[in-house]
DNA sequence: CATCGATGTTTAA
DNA sequence: TAAACCTCGATGC
């Protein structure tokens, strides 16, 4: 699930469902006990995503979550909660249940299943967090330090309603590329170059832009790099809207152009799609279409 | 029931 | 470059 689109979606969902009211926080699994105690009973004011990080602000404290490779939130609640929590596409799955309420009017949650690192509860429902790489309570200095290490996030365009600020993000991306000698494929996975891109968006954006993944980042013509930023922006926004990554948008059942399609013919030029290991991750590309 | 792999990152060597 | 970490579903025997 988790490239940048997942986290931005999650931030929106948490804002809708939890922001502005005191919540209850626990760690059924037991590995976030101290943090949960600090967050419990506080009012989550605002959730935001920055690349693949989720931050929930509660006054001077910030809850930081990074889902890593397979971390996930699951939401469950009564009909009110489901109606509220269904942000955007219907598949923002909110499980519903036969509701039972405590004397204080709060929904009685189901017992946690499996390893639930953190459970956050509102009156009408709750969210369970499993398998995150990071689940921590930060102060504002620590929060700033995390954010400072991240490159521009295409999904943070449009936040300030300032077209010049958005243009600066793209310029920063071009600047970051110009200063790396690694391949463009490696650069896209470096969260200091651009934040929020993962293995699927890397493969799919380079394919659609016809870029050879092994081109050195600092040799990529800005005339080619700027459309790459725009392509990633479009793809990430589609992912937020739809709740899943689907870069092939021509109706059929195929979801990706090259990701996990190694050994089959490229739908565009017929060349056999390749896969190779690059810095511990699998890289997928079409040697026929991606030549510059 | 055991093993493997996954849309990720950090640390050690 | 490799291993470690975190969890769960798919696959294989």
TrEMBL record:
Family matches, as PANTHER family: ENDONUCLEASE 8
Alphabetical GO biological process terms: base-excision repair
Leader sequence residues: none
Domain FPG-type as annotated: residue spans: 257-291
Recorded family membership: Belongs to the FPG family.
An example molecular function term from Gene Ontology annotations: zinc ion binding
InterPro entries in the cross-refs: FPG_cat, FPG_N, H2TH_FPG, Ribosomal_uS13-like_H2TH, Znf_DNA_glyclase/AP_lyase
Any Pfam family the entry gives: Fapy_DNA_glyco
Keyword Repeat: no
EC number, UniProt record: 4.2.99.18
Keywords assigned: DNA damage, DNA repair, DNA-binding, Endonuclease, Glycosidase, Hydrolase, Lyase, Metal-binding, Multifunctional enzyme, Nuclease, Zinc, Zinc-finger
Organism the protein comes from: Nesterenkonia aurantiaca
SUPFAM superfamilies per record: Glucocorticoid receptor-like (DNA-binding domain), N-terminal domain of MutM-like DNA repair proteins, S13-like H2TH domain
SMART domains: Fapy_DNA_glyco (SM00898), H2TH (SM01232)
Lineage: Bacteria, Bacillati, Actinomycetota, Actinomycetes, Micrococcales
Protein name as it appears in the record: DNA-(apurinic or apyrimidinic site) lyase
């Amino acid at each position: 699930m988790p490239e940048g689109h997942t986290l931005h979606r999650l931030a929106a969902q948490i804002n809708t469902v939890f922001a502005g009211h005191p919540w209850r926080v626990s760690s059924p699994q037991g590995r976030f006990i101290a943090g949960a105690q600090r967050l419990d009973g506080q009012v989550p004011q605002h959730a935001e995503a920055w690349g693949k990080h989720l931050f929930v602000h509660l006054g001077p404290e910030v809850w930081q979550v990074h889902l890593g490779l397979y971390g996930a939130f699951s939401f469950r609640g009564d009909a009110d909660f489901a109606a509220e929590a269904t942000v955007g596409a219907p598949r923002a799955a909110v499980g519903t249940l036969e509701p039972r309420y405590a004397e204080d009017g709060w929904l009685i949650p189901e017992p946690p299943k499996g390893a639930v690192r953190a459970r956050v509860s509102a009156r009408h429902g709750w969210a369970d967090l499993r398998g995150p790489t990071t689940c921590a309570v930060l102060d504002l200095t620590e929060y700033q330090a995390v954010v400072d290490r991240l490159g521009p996030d295409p999904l943070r365009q449009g936040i300030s309603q300032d077209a010049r600020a958005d243009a600066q993000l793209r310029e920063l991306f071009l600047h970051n590329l110009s200063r790396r000698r690694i391949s463009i494929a490696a650069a896209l996975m470096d969260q200091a170059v651009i934040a929020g891109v993962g293995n699927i968006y890397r493969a799919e954006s380079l394919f659609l832009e016809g870029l050879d993944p092994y081109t050195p980042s600092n040799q990529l013509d800005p005339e080619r790099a700027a459309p790459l930023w725009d392509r990633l922006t479009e793809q990430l926004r589609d992912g937020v809207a739809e709740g899943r990554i689907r870069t092939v948008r021509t109706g059929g059942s195929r979801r990706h152009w090259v990701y996990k399609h190694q050994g089959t013919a490229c739908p565009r030029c017929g060349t056999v799609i390749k896969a190779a290991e690059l810095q511990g991750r699998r890289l997928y590309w079409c040697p026929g279409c991606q030549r510059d």
